[in-house]
Amino acid sequence: MAVRALRTSLTLVLTLLAASLVIFGAIYAAPGDPAAFLVGGQEDATPEKLAAVRAAYHLNDPVWSQYGHWIGGAATGDFGRSLQYSDQVSHLIASRLPTTLFLVVYASVLFVVLGTALGALSAVRRGRLDSAIVAVTTLLSSIPKFVKALALVALFAVQLGWFPVSGAGEGFIGRLHHLTLPAFALAMAELAVVTRVTRQSMLDQYPLDHVTAARSAGLSEGKVVRRHVLRNALPPIVTMCGLLTAGLFAGTVVIETAFGISGMGSLLVGAINTHDFPVTQAVLLLMVLAYMLVTTAVDLVHPVLDPRVRLHRSPA
Amino acid sequence: MLHIENLTAELPSATTRRPVLRQVDLRVGTGEVVGLVGESGSGKSTTAKTILRMLPDGTRVRGAVRLEGQDILDMDGPRLRELRSRRVAMIHQDPRAALNPVRTIGDFLTERMVHTLGHSSRQAERQALALLTAVGITHPEQRLRQYPHELSGGMLQRVVIASALAAEPELLLADEATSALDVTTQAEILAILREHQRRRDLGLLFITHDLHLASAYCDRVYVMYAGQVVEQAPAHTLFSSPRHPYTAALLGCTPKLGDHTPVRPIPGRPPSLGDVFTGCPFAARCPAAEPACETWQPVHTRTAEGGSAACRLLERHPAESLPTTSPQEVHP
Questions:
Q1: Where in the numbering of this chain does the ABC transporter domain appear (chain B) (predicted)?
Q2: Segments of chain B assigned E as strands
Q3: CA nearest to B92 within chain A
Q4: B47 exposed, middle or buried (CB, 10 Å; 0-12, 13-18, 19+)?
Q5: CA distance B67 to B84
């Protein structure tokens, strides 16, 4: 058990290091001189000033040294200073992270609950309801996120006035109110996927002997569905939900911008537009970390759902 | 106790061109072990499924399936669940497939008792332990916490039998209950099944493709072919004097210890659901068939042994035994 925990953590750290290299390399290779931007707008962008800025941000050091400097700081939670906001990156992130986490969790709850419910309904009822659910969810998933965001705003915020047009809100209730439309816009495509996976996974279970055996033992259909069909259909559903939740962090980039929410996604967009590389790197690294944490959690849940997995995990 | 009368069942599938069961008559008395024998696709499993009303949706069923006088085909939802949970228990062919792979043996046994019989979970667990001991499983406490993939096939079939006995049913349906097991395990399972059947005076419908096993194990045997019962007889007479050419052919195609006469496979192939018959379904493969057999609608004729068989030749010579029954005459 301890060995496995150690191995899992080691894998996490190594993957994170690899990701950090890619992120750093991409930002380094991106066109444009951050120093020029830093002093940009000012008329007195003299070579002396540029050189001073370069020195302050270690821009003259060799690449490896710059990377080492950055990753060393990141390991202790110090991501440097933002070029745009002249504030610690960690402060910026700390103020934006709660909103984004709230949004992602809200959207995840929506697509997990509604997706499995619709998928289960499809699998149990079949027929016309099934076709309707598949058709509607496919349609919703094929519309781009920002179009859905605009349509939701137009209908529920402008026309009906049920929800605010933008902003993140204060307190739990305020946040819930403000983030409902963004969460729906964010979760709809994922909802369609979870519906599909749930439906198919359950349909795969229906013809199996153990389901027939449970039914022939006199269990009511509801119990057969819950305790055998849905229960055994869970592993692929949980895996898919985990991957989709992890992917939602990237989706917040579009949604936060569309709804004018001050979160990690909009911070990233702003940072990229202004060549604010310390912020860009930090946000990307955190997104990778979030993705990895969620997928690791899914891996840990899997043996609980299917005891046969435990058997195959002998130390090799 | 169980009376199946004139049962005909038609599947909704487009490829089926004849009823999957045709005019099946079958009885199982209290405490009686009845064998149901036939090739794959002969309708023996369908007969068992009909007794639990487990046929696919859209199947048209005519006739009657009565348990203690009540027609199972007319039962509503709650009565049907009561029938499945308390009165008729099924032992499935492949125990590994019949148990949910992600739940423990204990879950499997107690789920039925808690959710269909209304036991408390502690009471159910006590009973599960007692049942596992009764079917000869060692370390039952440990087994309850194990998963199906941790147990052998023979052990799992004991678990399935234990679960079938839990509700103290009147009738047990064993559908190829030992076919997937190796021979020594098969013998143990058969002994356990027989012991509990006798002790509790259960009716047992024993479905198998093995005619020798059926005639050795059962009190009475029904032989099915193409969805019809072609012969039924007390088990001991079936072996020595089969009256239907199909029964005789089945006996002829099994090798016997110490007998060096060549094994004779039945010519042709078992009929599929796409084959339609104008007369006796076995006529095309029957060594004694006459042209008139092709149009003769099968009717059962009583035999001297106390059974009956659906063969046209028996109508003409009810007292004679069939020429195909003695191998020496056919294969000199």
A1: 2-251
A2: 2-10, 21-28, 33-37, 60-67, 70-71, 88-91, 171-175, 203-208, 220-225, 228-234, 301-302, 308-309
A3: A213
A4: buried
A5: 12
Q: Return the structure tokens found at B41.
A: 């696709």
Burial of A153 (0-12, 13-18, 19+ CB in 10 A): buried
Q: Which residues of B touch A305 (CB under 8 A)?
A: 102
Alpha carbons B217 and B194: distance in angstroms, whole number: 9
The verdict on a CB contact (< 8 Å) between B82 and A219 is no
**Separation of alpha carbons A85 and B25, rounded Å:** 89
Quick one: which H or E segment has residue A44? none
pTM of the full structure: 0.81
Express as a percent the part of chain B with pLDDT over 90.
Answer: 45
DSSP A88: B
Long-range contacts of residues B316-324, Cβ cutoff 8 Å, at least 24 apart: B321/B241, B321/B243, B322/B242, B322/B243, B322/B244, B322/B245, B322/B248, B322/B288, B323/B288, B324/B245, B324/B248, B324/B249, B324/B252, B324/B287, B324/B288
User: What is the band of A44 on the pLDDT scale with cuts at 50, 70, 90?
Assistant: low
B85 Cβ under 8 Å from any chain A Cβ: yes
Q: What would the mean pLDDT of B303-310 be, rounded to a whole number? A: 86
Torsion sign, CA atoms B161, B166, B171, B173: negative
pLDDT of residue A129: 93
Q: CB A232 to CB B86 under 8 A?
A: no
Q: How far apart are CA A84 and CA A276, in angstroms?
A: 6
Average pLDDT of span B81-106: 91
CB A97 within 8 A of CB A290: no
